[in-house]
Amino acid sequence: MVPHLTSGVPGCGGAFKASPEDFEVDEIPAYEPDGQPGGEHAFVFVEKRGRSTPEVAKLIARQAGIPEREVSWAGLKDKQAVTRQWVSLPWKAAARLEGFAAPGVTLHRVVRHKNKLKSGHLRGNRFSLVVRGVRDVGAARTSFELLCARGVPNAFGAQRFGAKGDNAARGKQVLLSGGRHRDRFERKLFLSAYQSLLFNRVLALRLERGLFSTVLAGDVLKKQLTGGEFVCDSPAVDQPRADAFEVSPTGPLFGPEMRAPTGAALELERAVLADEGVTLETFSAGGDETRGARRLLRVLLEAPTFEAQGDTLRLGFALPAGSYATVVLNELIKPADEVELPSEG
What we know:
With 345 residues, the protein is α+β, with helices and mostly antiparallel strands. It is globular, with a radius of gyration of 21 Å. The strands form three sheets. Strands 1, 2, 3, 4, 5, 6, 13 and 14 form an eight-stranded mixed beta sheet that branches. A four-stranded antiparallel beta sheet has the order 9-8-10-11. Strands 7-12 form a two-stranded antiparallel ribbon. It has eight helices and 14 strands. The longest helix has 25 residues, at 184-208. It has helices at residues 53-64, 91-94, 137-150, 167-176, 184-208, 235-243, 263-276, 325-333, and strands spanning 23-29, 41-49, 72-73, 82-90, 105-113, 122-131, 152-153, 220-223, 229-231, 247-253, 293-296, 298-299, 302-309, 312-320. β3 and β4 form a beta hairpin.
């Protein structure tokens, strides 16, 4: 478990009910469809309730008379939520969507575009969340303000590790067995979960040592605006840039193609691997699924809003793609068992 950044503030208590009205997500696309004539693809803006993204894609494919694989999306959105996002399909089939009707699904717009929408083609997600039965609104506000000022620990949420919490352990088994597993989808899921677990452990270690936003010699830093990476050779120069959120330290998604830190940062990450009894070379067995990458250790809450009405909180904020609203809620509520939220693509 990753320690709370706001550990000095009591938990506010309360319950998050993953009902559609208490959990709303608006996908922030990487780009808008251009609407130019001649585009071979149609972008469809979908609002859904009580439906998963693949389920909606299946309904659209059936209505359009095309194979399911021809309907694509940028990020998965959970079933127990109100979510709005783009999906794409071939333009030649889009006319067949006229008259589309399905419980919990509304198609708002169809716009022509030259390219197919691909997984990961999103900038982030805007969340509107409701927490009910809050005992200490003041504590919630203090924690939320700290997160706004210091950034949010970019941990992977509990849902990353499966309903039984054993996906990471199974991923480790896959690597130690030479990368072999009978099911390709499960293999990818398990290996990703193991990388995520080790990232969380590096993040936890830095939080425990008071190094969450501290730039270490040899840290791989990432520029907030462009995503460019570089290795820090002068913490005295780069710490002010980190304090201004121009750059942030990163943690490892271990793999042979990951940009490696040096110095103190490298020692910290090696310690996590040593505790696991694996090395960086172990991840070569995962092939394309574990090439490796760097992930921000902290992310900004964009356009945050906080509203209290009696014992009910209404929170609004945006996070980059791949970051979890779970973390924000757990920092406020501090439940004995971490809150599990629907996944955010």
